[in-house]
Amino acid sequence: MLDGRIADGFVIVMNHQVPGVPDITLADIRAAMGRIRSDIIRTPLVLCDAASDRAGIPVYLKLENLQRTGAFKVRGALSKVTSLLPEERERGLICASSGNHGLGVAYASSRMGARCVVVLPENANPHKALLLKKLGAEIVKHGITSDVRQMKVDELSERHGYAQVHPFADPALIAGQGTLGLEIVEDLPDVEEVYVPIGGGGLISGISVAIKEQRPTVRVYGVEPEHSNAMSEALRHGKPVALERVETIADGLAAKITEALNFSVVSRFVDEVILVSDREILDATWFLLEYAKVLVEPSAAASFAGLLANPKRKGKALAVLSGGNVTLQQIEKLRQAWRA
Q1: Mutual orientation of helices 260-269 and 230-237 as an angle, nearest 10°?
Q2: What are 114-117's contacts with CB under 8 Å, separation 24+?
Q3: pTM
Q4: Whole-number percent of the chain with pLDDT over 70
Q5: How far is CA 111 from CA 38, 78, 135, 163, in A?
């Protein structure tokens, strides 16, 4: 096997646990489920005939686009916020987000009666910004890349005493995202392959632990946009590295760098990372809408794009459709731009 080297759009992963980072365990994930179960939706897991015909294997879809706030992020946000002390929540909560994480934190904050501040990029998805306002979040727009937004969060947190909810590199948050993996194993115990989109790596970190600790033979694939591939580059270099450029239509996957915690988990529990083009992501988004009758944002459709790009796919496969906070007009605008 290769160790973090890219070949034909794939990064084959070998164990590379980082010393000094905390473990995320199956017990942590089950504890998180106990804390958040009453506030989340157990989203449907369905066999999709259209996707199966297209891929040539049975393809199941985990419809996390039907989750509260329209995305998986609410799982991790609730897990983190419910793990905080009351006095920490009373100071207010803050996070950096491209949209979906902010929505999760805003929802969790509203459930706890806490103030919520979300730092969005200056080019934030207007649909997600509108949803945030409806949840009562205070919006600060700053910069374009994830690292710049996080610096603003650090500044505001230090100035006002807000409790931070990191978008992907927090053990309690990752445990919350892992509850999705618990549902997959319970609802499809004979699944053979699971495809998960990667931005910073919080979702795949939680899902991979939940699945591999119970079904070690299941193949877990991460999927990244080819020009927003922080995890692939971390695997290639043996440590997190900042990308010089982040460019993708999948705004929820536009992370400039992963963190040591996520890198360590992915190195231990994920089999391969697949790189896909924006064209492949957009085609998958449109296919799911037109033939599977599922409206998801490009970030979510990346998982299905990765499945189609994998020539080694076989057996029962599942694509995690991580969110649906997009409008038909936005998808059509993307299609028109690609046609031009």
Answers
A1: 80
A2: 114/81, 114/89, 114/90, 115/162, 116/92, 117/92, 117/93, 117/156, 117/162
A3: 0.93
A4: 94
A5: 11, 9, 10, 16
Contact 324, 44 (CB under 8 A): no
What would be the CATH architecture of the domain defined by 6-71+170-339? 3-Layer(aba) Sandwich (3.40)
**Closest of 266, 272, 265 to residue 309, by C-alpha:** 272
Whether 148 and 179 have beta carbons less than 8 Å apart is answered as no
Residue closest to 302 by CA, chosen among 287, 316, 292:
287
Element (H, E) at 11: strand 10-12
CATH of 73-164, picked from 3.40.50.1980, 2.40.40.20, 3.20.20.370, 3.40.50.1100, is 3.40.50.1100
pLDDT in tens, 227-256: 999 999 999 999 999 999 999 999 999 999
CA distance 326 to 288: 13
Where are the domains positioned within the chain? 6-71+170-339, 73-164
Active site residues: 73, 322
Residue with tokens 């804390």: 35
State how beta strands 10-12 and 45-47 pair.
Answer: unpaired
